[in-house]
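Justification of resources, computational component.

The compute hours requested in this renewal are based largely on the per-chain cost of generating structure records like the one below. Each record pairs the submitted sequence with a full structure-token output. That output is archived, and it is also reused by downstream analysis tasks.
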Amino acid sequence: MRIKNCFLLFMLLMSSVSLSLANKPVKRVILFTIDGLHWEAPQKTHMPVFNSLIKEGTYIQQSYVILPHHPTIGDYSKYNSCSFPNPVLHQGTLFLSDENKMIQEYFSPKEQTAFVVNTVAYKSVGRGFTTLIMDDLLTDAEVVDQSIQIMKTQHPVFMRIHLQRPGQRGFDISQMDKDSPYYNNIFAKGSPYVAAIENADIQLGRFIHYLKESGKWDETVLIITSDHGQSNIGWHALFDENAWRTPLLFIGAGIAKNRVLPYFEHTDIAPTIMGILGRDIPQINGGGGHFIDAMLINGNKQAAYPEHIKILNNQIKEYGYLKAEMMMKSLSNLRLLNAIALLDNSASGASFYHQDRILEWYKAGTTEQLIQTNNTVLEKMKKLLNDN
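The structure output for this chain reads:
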């Protein structure tokens, strides 16, 4: 009887310890991004570190990003040095504005934040970090070296680490000719993209080893993902659906283990980071994301969230193809030229919110209204094509 009571006391003690660890406050969230990470890379390349973490955290195989367009002319390029998904991620909204706060600015300068990346392409989303290292000459390994050094000497509450080389190697493959063994296939044997992804996985392992060795792991939530996906032929073409999807993994303090979520959008990363850290969720304009708590141990894993980005990306893709079809038919039907001319004319009624109007998306009011307006225009275009 005494042995039974001792066993029950031991189990109660262990339960208390487990509960204590589960409720341990999160001191920092680290966003570890691997540029151009294809959603199938964990299965098609050798990523033992990433794959071992899937069962230790909450995994989304295909998280959706806004289509990775990167215009270098027009108003967008005046304020943004990188493709759409990066300001969307940092601002936590589809309704971009230079006046929106970025996630790091909710902490800085009272608390420390850091961003380490081996390219200067992200300078426009580097605003407000207390420590910012952007150097084209750094290797991915050196990015992690610099990140570890920051962790040793500072106390960032939010940190982004970005390894640029995989995305660069993907772009390199997209520009190769037919004689290349990797032509049209980033996963071909000996592919430099695969080599860069596998090296990124090694660097991820090095960083996690430091967190555990230094005793910081139990107070950290690590988010592993990319700013965009990768085409099977390399790079991230605007209408390639593989460029819209990338893996997303949450692991660490308070995160549920061996949980898989069916859907996630990168607009939700910033508000989710705020929620994980126990901070007030900013009321961003009508295009803002949400705090998704489904990855937390006690979170609502049954919650359903609308697939706004997936729908919007597909609308923009369909618009591009319908407009091209109208152009071709207009060669023999001039009435379609008038219809094309009115597509971007707000005086004609609802006009389509395509990628070149991203800074005007806020005019729709909310993401739901933006999608509704776009759908109305698409139906009109399809009717015009059928009638002519």
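The two ends are 88 Å apart (CA to CA). The longest strand covers residues 245-252.
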